[in-house]
Write a structure and sequence with these properties.
heterodimer; A: alpha+beta; 3-stranded antiparallel β-sheet; 4 strands; B: alpha+beta; Arc Repressor Mutant, subunit A; 6 domains; 6-stranded antiparallel β-sheet; 4-stranded antiparallel β-sheet; 32 helices; disordered N terminus
Chain lengths: 81, 858
């Protein structure tokens, strides 16, 4: 059995280059979870309107969203757009 | 005997007679005083200003042009250039030159070389006699006026300026978003152009079967680049912001800007587009090439335009008259025939005439002006000036595929305006008709001179579908939402369309645009966000908590804040100042090696592996081991659920491998096998045989009877057993003393795949309630298969169920207690225990099924 290393000292975690998805009302999460591509890309639910997505699965998610009639805005905070 | 008094001798002769007499006499050999006196007299008589005028008018046309060419070049020219300007062969031109010299209109040798005996071939230059030059001025002015065509051409080609401007808009908007490197000056091919051409096929029918950019669109593209309307941003072509202002402005200004851009552009090169000319290697490049550079071509355009101004607008002229004007006025307008030793020789250096089988034949500098400069002129008229709407082209007979021929031309009103010959721009606005917005979401621009501003707006939120004289657009959800990305709203789109359509818009169009915009506003994805998580409350406990929270940005969840754009450095500095340790988790940099694999299907996650992606990965394919933090065990049901969501086995294995030193083969095999089941392969038929002992494995496979039971090898130590032969294999092995141990994860292989329980069920007791789409519950990924599973169990065990269902057209779900009787495909027949009736449902109408404890009887 592998030895579990000791826990690192407490620290503030800075999650960088995270991909977020924001919705305009809480009920939409339920609608999106019907899409397999969304479930596959979903990493963490932060609040009823905000989720963290796996950035690498974004192309598949966008294709699936477009197929179902959604065309979400994709913004980038890095480029300041 | 020479006459003693030349005046007496010649008094009775007319000027014309004297001219003939002078030509026939061998004056160059004259030595006698009488002849000298005669020459002096003749010169005085013939070459006075008034006499010269008459003489010049009586000269043959070829000699008149020689004189005019010499005059145009400042009265001095080298013989090679002068010979090149004249039509006719070299011997004829030489005779003309000799005649002109003998008549005293043209002089050689130059003054510095006077007294030497010269022949034509030995004289590098000729000079224009001063009196002849004076006399030439009025005469040449008369010759310089191009003559009108007697009959207008039968076939006329005209490109409307409005279409050029409209296509500028369409090309620019079609190019926007194209991933291409910046354009090169190679217009005859090259990858960028082909890529652009692919995007532009809808615009140009003739390009449908070609793999190069249609020349007209390449021309427009060159103008757009010259106008700085196309920018390259991160490898993508984008339209410059000023494009909107330009297209919404005065069409005269836009046309003028395009015309000026063409004069300056060095991307477009008409000389390279002459199909009859091919590059021709030369042995000694030190002497220089005659091939004009892009800069020289650009300057040549200006010289041609200067000559073109002599032609009256709207009148037809022969193309040859333009050739003649330019040949007389400035034969070196494109290619300079140097007299400084460079370009020595008699042929054009660097290119030649395309011969048979693509051989290249030399072209003579003096005799082939029409084949080089003339063809360049034709190319200017046929393409650039025609596409710009400056000239219309005329043909006396059908072109018959001769793409380089032009018989006649006439300046258009727009051309006259651009050349400064007319003050007013032909305004097409009066001819405009409203847009036609049809209920099938198509928009037709019927106007012959479309409003470029309106077209530019349309391109933002509608897809251009081509069309010849009619620009056709299609409104779609995607195009409207693309417009929303660029800042358009449903209200502004509707307003523009209503105004352009003359005040009416089909009701379904307005409603759809509104609906599409609402769908667009629903979700927003933001990349590159920084979040700060404080799981231990270090920031709140700090004395500088307020300052830290202010720097950290808005609160998203307990202990989690979203850092404002550009606020990362401020936050880092504040945390450093407060002496709070920070750990960076960069989701773009790739995961660290935080996973190790235990024996079997165990996975250990290091405490450093607390990034959300690793956590999400583990939750997707494994379940935590109770009482052992950081320990996980692969869960076949979760793997199947992930596979059902579209995450392939390769992706799962790769994600595990990236976070470790490579996934173990057993884990890879297990994930692959479980994913196959989720993908619809019947597990009842997929029996795997695994033997990790290589020696034993080879012994087993050496027995033909046993090897025949294996269908396919899927890993070094794993085989798929032939369908239905697992029991036979087990018996055969047992007979040979080998006991086959079944893998627990495959124990339920008799379950049909469509009854596979969903995630969360695992080894837990049978789930009794499933509901679609409730995140966080054990049945988060409930599907029709899972509902079927519960209903079938209820039918088999005669247990009551509670369902949440709604009929088609209803918005709210109702809860009903049912006795399920028959499940036929997706249709359930059940007795309603509340109303007593017998109902039929489609599974899609049911949201949740709960298995109740009570049983029913038929």
């Amino acid at each position: 059995m592998a030895r579990i290393p000791p826990k690192p000292e407490p620290a503030v975690l800075l999650h960088e280059n995270v991909t977020l998805m924001e919705m305009d009302r809480p009920g939409q999460m339920e609608e999106l979870q019907a899409l397999p591509a969304f479930r596959a890309a979903l990493v963490k639910i932060l609040d009823p309107c905000t989720v963290v997505l796996d950035g690498r699965r974004l192309p598949e998610l966008m294709a699936s969203l477009r197929k179902h009639g959604h065309n979400p805005r994709v913004l980038s905070e890095e480029n300041g757009e | 005997m020479p006459p003693e008094s030349p005046e007496l001798f010649l008094d009775g002769y007319s000027t014309e007679s004297l001219k003939v007499m002078a030509r026939r006499r061998g004056w160059r050999d004259a030595t006698s005083a009488g002849k000298v006196a005669l020459i002096a007299f003749l010169k005085e008589r013939l070459f006075s200003r008034s006499a010269n005028q008459g003489l010049i008018r009586s000269l043959p046309p070829r000699q008149q042009h020689l004189l005019a060419a010499l005059k145009a070049r400042g009265g001095k020219a080298d013989l090679v250039t002068l010979l090149a300007t004249a039509s006719g062969d070299g011997a004829e031109v030489a005779t003309d030159l000799r005649d002109l010299v003998e008549l005293g209109l043209m002089l050689y040798p130059p003054r510095a070389e006077k007294g030497r005996k010269h022949r034509l071939g030995q004289c590098p230059r000729v000079w224009l006699d001063s009196t002849a030059a004076d006399a030439l001025a009025p005469a040449s002015a008369a010759w310089g006026r191009p003559k009108l065509l007697a009959d207008p051409p039968e076939e006329i080609h005209e490109a409307f300026p409005g279409l050029l401007l409209a296509d500028m808009v369409l090309v620019l908007n079609s190019l926007a978003g194209t991933q291409v490197p910046p354009p090169t000056d190679d217009l005859r091919g090259g990858r960028p152009w082909r890529e652009i051409a692919t995007r532009l096929l809808v615009l140009e029918e003739e390009a449908r079967d070609r793999d190069v950019l249609p020349p007209r669109l390449a021309f427009i593209y060159a103008i757009l680049v010259e106008l700085n309307l196309v920018r390259v941003s991160s490898g993508f072509l984008v339209a410059a912001p000023v494009a909107g202002d330009l297209f919404h402005g005065d069409p005269a200004n836009l046309h003028k800007a395009a015309f000026s851009a063409w004069q300056k552009t060095q991307i477009w090169n008409e000389f390279q587009r002459i199909p009859e000319l091919l590059p021709r290697p030369i042995p000694d490049e030190a002497l220089g090439l005659h091939t004009p550079s892009a800069g020289k071509v650009s300057r040549a355009r200006g010289k041609v335009l200067a000559v073109l101004k002599r032609f009256a607008p709207a009148h037809w002229y022969a193309f040859s008259s333009l050739e003649r004007e330019l040949k007389v006025d400035d034969p070196d307008f494109l290619i300079r025939r140097g007299d400084d030793g460079r370009h020595a020789g008699t042929t054009y250096r660097g290119f030649g005439q395309r011969g048979r089988d693509n051989t290249v034949l030399p072209l003579n500098l003096t005799e082939d002006w029409e084949r080089v400069e003339g063809r360049f002129l034709a190319r200017l008229l046929l393409e650039s000036l025609h596409w710009l709407g400056v000239v219309r082209l005329g043909y006396h007979r059908p072109r018959d595929g001769d793409a380089s021929r032009v018989d006649a031309f006439a300046l258009t009103p727009a051309g006259a305006y651009l050349l400064g010959l007319a003050s007013g721009y032909p305004d097409g606005r009066a001819e405009r008709v409203p847009l036609l917005v049809q209920p099938d979401f198509s928009i037709l621009c019927l106007a012959p001179a479309p409003d470029t501003g309106m077209l530019h707006d349309l391109c933002a939120f509608a897809d251009h579908q081509g069309g010849d004289r009619v620009a056709r657009f299609i409104l779609s959800r995607e195009s409207v939402q693309r417009g929303c990305h660029q800042g358009w709203s449903a209200e502004s789109i509707t307003r523009i369309l209503t105004n352009a359509a003359g005040g009416t818009l089909p009701q379904n169009i307005a409603a759809s645009i509104q609906e599409w915009e609402e769908a667009f506003r629903r979700f927003r994805i933001i990349q590159g966000v920084t979040l700060v998580e404080d799981p231990h409350g270090l920031m709140s406990a700090s004395p500088q908590a307020a300052k830290l929270h202010s720097a950290a940005g808005g609160r998203l969840a307990p202990g989690l804040r979203r850092v404002r754009q550009g606020g990362k450095s401020t936050l880092s500095a504040a945390l450093r100042k407060a002496r709070i340790p920070v750990r960076h988790l960069d989701y773009a940099a790739g995961p660290a090696r935080v996973l190790t694999f235990d024996e079997g299907d165990g996975i250990t996650c290091s405490p450093r592996g607390d990034d959300w992606l690793t956590r999400s990965l583990l939750e997707r394919i494994a379940r935590p081991v109770e009482g052992e933090p950081g320990r996980w065990r692969l869960d076949p049901r979760r793997v199947r659920a992930a596979a059902a969501d579209g995450v392939s086995a390769d992706e799962m294995v790769r994600a595990l491998g990236e976070r470790s030193r490579g996934a173990r083969p057993e884990i890879r095999l297990a994930i692959t096998a479980w994913s196959r089941r989720a993908a619809g392969v019947s597990v009842a038929r997929l029996s795997l045989f695994t033997c990790q002992d290589q020696e034993l494995r080879e012994m087993i496979l050496a027995v033909p009877e046993l090897a025949a039971e294996m269908e396919e090898q899927i890993a070094d130590d794993t085989f798929v057993v032939r369908a239905g032969r697992m029991t036979a294999l087990r018996r055969a092995l047992k007979a040979r003393g080998v006991r086959l141990r079944s893998d627990g994860s495959l124990r339920d292989r008799t379950a049909p795949s469509d009854l596979a329980p969903g995630p969360g069920a695992g080894a837990d007791p049978l789930p009794f309630r499933w509901r679609r789409g409730t995140r966080g519950s054990a049945s988060s990924a409930a599907s029709s298969a899972q509902l079927r599973f519960l209903l079938l169990r209820a039918i088999q065990t005669r247990r009551k169920v509670r369902v949440e269902m709604r009929r088609d057209g209803e918005t709210l779900y109702r809860s009903r207690q049912l006795a399920p009787l028959v499940l036929d495909g997706s249709v359930l027949t059940a007795a309603c225990l509340e109303s007593g009736g017998r109902w039929t449902f489609h599974l899609d109408q049911i949201r949740a099924v709960e298995l109740l404890a009570g049983r029913f009887t038929t």
